[in-house]
Amino acid sequence: MSTSKAFSEPGGCFALRSGHGTRHYFAHTDLPGSPGDPAVEVTRGEWVPPRAVHISHFKGSANPGDVIWTSDFFPLIVSQRVIDVLEANAVTGWRTYPVVVHNKAKAVVPGYHGLAITGRCGFFDGTRSRVVLRDYPAALVEERVGYHLDEASWDGSDIFCSIAGSGMKLCTAAVKEVLERAKVRNLSFEAISDLTIHNKAILATFPPLARIPKLPDPKQPG
Protein backbone atom coordinates (compact mmCIF):
# COMPACT_ATOMS: atom_id res chain seq x y z
CA MET A 1 0.00 0.00 0.00
CA SER A 2 1.24 3.46 -0.82
CA THR A 3 0.09 5.88 1.85
CA SER A 4 1.92 8.80 0.15
CA LYS A 5 2.87 9.88 3.70
CA ALA A 6 0.40 12.73 3.56
CA PHE A 7 -3.21 13.44 4.27
CA SER A 8 -5.27 16.34 3.10
CA GLU A 9 -7.90 17.79 5.40
CA PRO A 10 -10.84 17.74 5.48
CA GLY A 11 -11.55 14.07 4.97
CA GLY A 12 -8.00 12.72 4.88
CA CYS A 13 -7.71 11.70 8.53
CA PHE A 14 -10.22 9.36 10.14
CA ALA A 15 -11.09 8.21 13.65
CA LEU A 16 -11.62 4.47 14.07
CA ARG A 17 -15.07 3.77 15.50
CA SER A 18 -17.11 0.73 16.39
CA GLY A 19 -19.47 -0.71 13.83
CA HIS A 20 -23.09 0.31 13.81
CA GLY A 21 -25.69 -1.71 15.69
CA THR A 22 -25.66 -3.73 18.89
CA ARG A 23 -25.47 -7.24 17.48
CA HIS A 24 -21.67 -7.47 17.59
CA TYR A 25 -19.74 -9.20 20.36
CA PHE A 26 -18.89 -6.62 23.03
CA ALA A 27 -16.49 -7.39 25.88
CA HIS A 28 -15.07 -6.66 29.29
CA THR A 29 -11.31 -6.74 29.94
CA ASP A 30 -9.46 -7.58 33.14
CA LEU A 31 -7.13 -4.59 32.82
CA PRO A 32 -6.11 -3.36 36.31
CA GLY A 33 -6.79 -0.05 37.95
CA SER A 34 -9.31 2.66 37.25
CA PRO A 35 -11.29 2.30 34.01
CA GLY A 36 -9.64 4.30 31.26
CA ASP A 37 -6.11 4.64 32.69
CA PRO A 38 -4.35 1.35 31.82
CA ALA A 39 -6.79 1.07 28.92
CA VAL A 40 -5.49 4.29 27.36
CA GLU A 41 -1.84 3.44 27.99
CA VAL A 42 -2.02 -0.05 26.51
CA THR A 43 -3.94 1.28 23.50
CA ARG A 44 -1.29 3.95 22.92
CA GLY A 45 1.53 1.41 23.23
CA GLU A 46 2.89 3.18 26.32
CA TRP A 47 2.39 0.25 28.68
CA VAL A 48 2.96 -3.44 27.99
CA PRO A 49 0.78 -5.74 30.13
CA PRO A 50 2.89 -8.23 32.14
CA ARG A 51 0.55 -11.02 31.02
CA ALA A 52 -2.14 -11.62 28.43
CA VAL A 53 -5.21 -9.44 28.87
CA HIS A 54 -8.36 -11.54 29.27
CA ILE A 55 -11.35 -10.55 27.16
CA SER A 56 -14.77 -11.83 28.26
CA HIS A 57 -18.22 -11.55 26.71
CA PHE A 58 -20.38 -8.69 27.98
CA LYS A 59 -23.22 -8.43 25.46
CA GLY A 60 -24.08 -8.89 21.81
CA SER A 61 -23.17 -11.85 19.63
CA ALA A 62 -21.97 -14.98 21.41
CA ASN A 63 -18.79 -15.13 19.32
CA PRO A 64 -16.35 -12.38 18.34
CA GLY A 65 -15.81 -11.18 14.78
CA ASP A 66 -12.99 -9.23 13.13
CA VAL A 67 -12.88 -6.42 15.71
CA ILE A 68 -13.74 -6.42 19.42
CA TRP A 69 -14.62 -3.26 21.34
CA THR A 70 -14.70 -3.28 25.12
CA SER A 71 -16.32 -1.57 28.09
CA ASP A 72 -12.93 0.07 28.75
CA PHE A 73 -13.73 2.06 25.58
CA PHE A 74 -10.17 2.48 24.33
CA PRO A 75 -8.65 -1.00 23.70
CA LEU A 76 -8.97 -2.34 20.17
CA ILE A 77 -8.83 -6.15 19.85
CA VAL A 78 -8.51 -7.58 16.34
CA SER A 79 -8.48 -10.97 14.66
CA GLN A 80 -5.52 -12.54 12.90
CA ARG A 81 -7.31 -11.74 9.63
CA VAL A 82 -7.06 -8.02 10.40
CA ILE A 83 -3.37 -8.40 11.31
CA ASP A 84 -2.80 -10.20 8.00
CA VAL A 85 -4.46 -7.33 6.11
CA LEU A 86 -2.30 -4.73 7.90
CA GLU A 87 0.89 -6.70 7.27
CA ALA A 88 0.06 -7.46 3.63
CA ASN A 89 -0.41 -3.75 2.99
CA ALA A 90 2.65 -2.64 4.99
CA VAL A 91 0.53 -0.47 7.30
CA THR A 92 2.74 1.24 9.88
CA GLY A 93 2.23 2.67 13.37
CA TRP A 94 1.15 -0.37 15.39
CA ARG A 95 2.22 -3.47 17.26
CA THR A 96 0.35 -6.16 19.17
CA TYR A 97 0.08 -7.34 22.75
CA PRO A 98 -1.26 -10.75 23.89
CA VAL A 99 -4.89 -11.29 24.75
CA VAL A 100 -7.04 -14.30 25.59
CA VAL A 101 -10.56 -14.00 24.18
CA HIS A 102 -13.53 -15.92 25.60
CA ASN A 103 -16.88 -16.30 23.87
CA LYS A 104 -20.24 -16.17 25.65
CA ALA A 105 -19.89 -19.84 26.60
CA LYS A 106 -16.52 -18.92 28.23
CA ALA A 107 -14.57 -21.02 25.75
CA VAL A 108 -11.25 -19.58 24.52
CA VAL A 109 -11.36 -18.33 20.93
CA PRO A 110 -7.81 -18.31 19.50
CA GLY A 111 -6.38 -15.96 16.93
CA TYR A 112 -6.85 -12.51 18.50
CA HIS A 113 -4.44 -9.71 19.37
CA GLY A 114 -4.53 -6.40 21.20
CA LEU A 115 -3.64 -3.56 18.84
CA ALA A 116 -1.25 -1.00 20.36
CA ILE A 117 -0.92 2.22 18.37
CA THR A 118 2.64 3.55 18.22
CA GLY A 119 2.28 6.21 15.51
CA ARG A 120 2.02 9.81 16.72
CA CYS A 121 0.82 13.22 15.63
CA GLY A 122 0.87 16.58 17.41
CA PHE A 123 -1.85 18.30 19.38
CA PHE A 124 -5.33 18.78 17.96
CA ASP A 125 -5.99 22.25 16.57
CA GLY A 126 -9.41 23.61 17.48
CA THR A 127 -9.00 27.02 15.87
CA ARG A 128 -10.51 25.81 12.62
CA SER A 129 -13.54 24.15 14.20
CA ARG A 130 -17.01 25.36 13.28
CA VAL A 131 -20.05 26.08 15.42
CA VAL A 132 -23.09 23.85 14.86
CA LEU A 133 -26.52 24.33 16.43
CA ARG A 134 -27.87 21.02 17.83
CA ASP A 135 -31.57 20.58 18.49
CA TYR A 136 -31.84 18.72 21.81
CA PRO A 137 -35.16 18.03 23.59
CA ALA A 138 -34.65 20.71 26.26
CA ALA A 139 -32.74 23.36 24.36
CA LEU A 140 -30.81 24.39 21.29
CA VAL A 141 -27.09 23.96 21.98
CA GLU A 142 -24.13 25.44 20.14
CA GLU A 143 -21.32 22.90 19.78
CA ARG A 144 -17.90 23.04 18.18
CA VAL A 145 -17.27 20.52 15.42
CA GLY A 146 -14.06 19.59 13.65
CA TYR A 147 -10.68 18.42 14.94
CA HIS A 148 -7.68 19.36 12.81
CA LEU A 149 -4.01 18.46 12.95
CA ASP A 150 -0.76 20.16 12.09
CA GLU A 151 0.50 17.77 9.43
CA ALA A 152 4.08 18.82 10.12
CA SER A 153 3.77 17.29 13.60
CA TRP A 154 2.70 13.89 12.24
CA ASP A 155 5.37 11.15 12.19
CA GLY A 156 4.06 9.66 8.93
CA SER A 157 2.60 6.50 10.46
CA ASP A 158 -0.51 5.06 8.83
CA ILE A 159 -2.22 4.47 12.21
CA PHE A 160 -1.55 6.99 14.96
CA CYS A 161 -2.82 9.00 17.93
CA SER A 162 -2.08 12.41 19.40
CA ILE A 163 0.83 13.12 21.73
CA ALA A 164 -1.74 14.88 23.92
CA GLY A 165 -2.57 11.55 25.55
CA SER A 166 -5.88 11.00 23.82
CA GLY A 167 -7.17 7.49 23.26
CA MET A 168 -8.61 8.50 19.90
CA LYS A 169 -7.38 6.08 17.24
CA LEU A 170 -6.61 7.74 13.88
CA CYS A 171 -5.70 6.50 10.42
CA THR A 172 -5.09 7.77 6.91
CA ALA A 173 -7.58 7.48 4.06
CA ALA A 174 -5.40 4.72 2.57
CA VAL A 175 -5.85 2.56 5.68
CA LYS A 176 -9.59 3.20 5.62
CA GLU A 177 -9.71 2.05 2.00
CA VAL A 178 -7.68 -1.11 2.73
CA LEU A 179 -9.84 -2.18 5.68
CA GLU A 180 -13.09 -1.40 3.90
CA ARG A 181 -11.96 -3.35 0.83
CA ALA A 182 -11.18 -6.31 3.10
CA LYS A 183 -14.73 -5.98 4.52
CA VAL A 184 -13.49 -5.86 8.11
CA ARG A 185 -16.58 -6.05 10.29
CA ASN A 186 -17.49 -4.01 13.37
CA LEU A 187 -15.30 -1.10 12.32
CA SER A 188 -16.33 2.28 10.97
CA PHE A 189 -14.54 5.51 10.14
CA GLU A 190 -15.41 9.15 10.72
CA ALA A 191 -13.48 12.10 9.35
CA ILE A 192 -12.06 14.05 12.28
CA SER A 193 -13.28 17.24 10.63
CA ASP A 194 -16.82 15.98 11.36
CA LEU A 195 -16.30 15.07 15.04
CA THR A 196 -17.90 17.09 17.81
CA ILE A 197 -15.19 18.43 20.14
CA HIS A 198 -15.51 17.15 23.70
CA ASN A 199 -11.85 17.63 24.66
CA LYS A 200 -11.87 20.03 27.62
CA ALA A 201 -8.39 21.37 26.89
CA ILE A 202 -9.41 22.41 23.38
CA LEU A 203 -12.79 23.75 24.46
CA ALA A 204 -11.07 25.87 27.13
CA THR A 205 -9.34 27.86 24.38
CA PHE A 206 -12.69 29.26 23.19
CA PRO A 207 -15.26 31.57 24.77
CA PRO A 208 -18.20 29.67 26.25
CA LEU A 209 -20.85 28.65 23.75
CA ALA A 210 -24.56 29.19 24.23
CA ARG A 211 -27.35 26.96 25.46
CA ILE A 212 -30.45 28.54 23.98
CA PRO A 213 -33.84 27.79 25.59
CA LYS A 214 -36.31 26.33 23.14
CA LEU A 215 -39.50 28.24 22.53
CA PRO A 216 -42.71 26.30 23.14
CA ASP A 217 -44.45 25.10 20.03
CA PRO A 218 -47.08 27.61 18.94
CA LYS A 219 -50.60 26.42 19.51
CA GLN A 220 -52.28 25.22 16.40
CA PRO A 221 -55.50 26.94 15.38
CA GLY A 222 -58.54 25.20 16.86
Description:
The protein has 222 residues and is mainly beta. It has one domain (13-212). The protein is built from four helices and 17 strands. The protein has a six-stranded mixed beta barrel. Strands 9-14-15-1-16 form a five-stranded mixed beta sheet. Strand 11 and strand 12 (139-145) form a beta hairpin. The model is unreliable at 1-5 (pLDDT under 50).
Radius of gyration: 20 Å
Low-confidence stretches: 1-5
Number of helices: 4
Count of separate structural domains: 1
| Widest β-sheet, arrangement of strands | 2-3-6-8-5-4
Distance between the termini: 66 Å
What proportion of the residues form beta strands (DSSP E)? 25-35%
Helix content: 10-25%
Oligomer: single chain
Described by the principal axes of the CA atoms, the overall outline is globular
Structural category? mainly beta
Roughly what is the average pLDDT, rounded to an integer? 89
Order of helices and strands: EEHEEEHEEEEEEEEEEHEHE
Any key phrases for this structure?
single chain; 222 residues; mainly beta; five-stranded mixed β-sheet; 13% helix; 35% strand; disordered N terminus
